[in-house]
Amino acid sequence: MLSFLRLCFAMLSAVWPLTVQRPYAPGAAPPPATPAATGPRDTAAVQAFLRTQAAAGFRGHVLVARGARVLVQQPVGGASRGPVAYWLGSTTKQFTAAAVLKLAEQGRLRVTDPLARFFPAAPADKRAMTLHHLLTHTSGLGDRYSADGQQQRDRAVRAILSQPLAGPVGQSYRYSSDGYCLLAAVVEVASGTSFEQYVRTALLQPAGLAHTGFWGQPLPAGVPLAPAQDAQRARRVSRRVYARGQSRANYGYRGATGMCSTTADLFGWLQALRSAKVLSDSSLRQLFAPAVAVRREKDVDVSYAYGWVVTTQNGQTQLVRHAGAEDWLGHNSFILLGGETTVVVLSNAGEPGGNAWSRTMAEGLWPLVQAP
User: Number of folded domains in the chain?
Assistant: First the structure.
């Protein structure tokens, strides 16, 4: 199996282990340890950090793994024990990108296809946008949440495409959730079924994810959804999006956001990707390959791939990550991958000072959980 990873992650050799472990099935006992899968260098320091963050107001679930072995998986700050689902926010985008690549594998589209192939009525200034542009936030679209509350696909697409471009198509990075809402509509046109149904059957079920769900649909059986941080604030959101404590299906929460999951399911998803259980070698290279420069931080380059942020140094991948938040619900998520280490944090404690709790927790844990 070593040759598989050399082929599949030539550019990501620092991200995934050099041996493929048996995929971890959410809800099942983790595989036995391997020599590389040792514990955090200071378990006491990890637990002390978790207690400190809980005392400061963090509430949520945390998972740390090395290779295929889960090292830490626990509720923090009074969160319920057992699997609990949280809304992922923009961490949903990786599933949308994977769905597009899966459809490409099936010959139903190409990432170089122009938007006009799927929406012939697209305005002239947007007809040449490709799926690659949408996947990498280089479409020129703004981040206006234009499809929020739209329950019909055609109206949602028109609402997005009627907006003026925020920049030239294909020239530079400009984050756009609207672009990923369009990708969800593309998935529906290409697959002939709903976005949710395609993602469920093509990705979630093969990966063994039983505790991952969608906005506006019944939640997975037996898994509670973490409550909103502030129920009063949630009531002020449009009733076309959220009403009486329930999410309402709409195209603003399809593709760019709108999925919920547990820490175990997200780790299971990453393991399924690593073992080529849901995508081919070629698709995995596309999913994680840095595609467009975002910024430079000291001596590190930050790029966007397909639904993932990738940091590189001297051409070598250092970290792969993504964050997401439904700020008005207080839910946020953060996934951080590097070397053999995976950190997944889900929270419903909001964004004190404008900083999502999940990111603060993940980045604080990172130096504590590296291999000795």
Answer: 1
DSSP letter for each residue of 162-191: TSPPSS-TTTS----HHHHHHHHHHHHHHH
- 237: pLDDT strictly greater than 70: yes
For 202, the 3-state DSSP assignment is helix
Residue 186, exposed/middle/buried by CB under 10 A (0-12, 13-18, 19+)?
A: buried
Percent of the residues in the chain that have a pLDDT greater than 70, as a whole number: 88
Domain-located, residue 118: no
Whether residue 31 is contained in a domain is answered as no
H or E element: which one contains 62? Answer: strand 60-66
For residue 285, the tally of other CB atoms under 10 A from its CB is 18
Taking only the tens place, the pLDDT of each residue in 28-68 is: 222 222 333 345 667 889 999 999 999 999 999 999 999 99
The Cα 134–Cα 180 span in angstroms is: 6
Instruction: Answer whether residue 147 is part of any domain.
Output: no
Q: What whole-number distance in Å separates Cα of residue 254 and Cα of residue 95? A: 11
- Residue 371 host element (H or E): none
Task: Output the domain CATH number for residue 202.
Answer: 3.40.710.10
Q: Which residue has the higher pLDDT, 7 or 350?
A: 350
Specify if 17 maps to a domain: yes
Q: How many residues does this entry show for the chain?
A: 372
Containing structural domain, residue 249: 2-25+38-91+196-368
- The answer to whether the CB of 189 falls within 8 A of the CB of 177 is no
Give me 220's structure tokens: 């997975």
pTM of the entire structure?
A: 0.90
- Structural contact between residues 140 and 170, judged by C-beta atoms closer than 8 angstroms: yes
One-letter amino acid at 256 equals A
Q: Which residue, 59, 347, 85, is CA-closest to 223? A: 85
Q: Please, which residues have CB within 8 angstroms of residue 45's CB and are 6 or more apart in sequence? A: 368
Residue 4 has pLDDT above 60, yes or no: no
Q: In what side-by-side order are the strands of the sheet with 341-347?
A: 69-76, 60-66, 341-347, 331-338, 316-326, 309-313, 300-304, 292-297
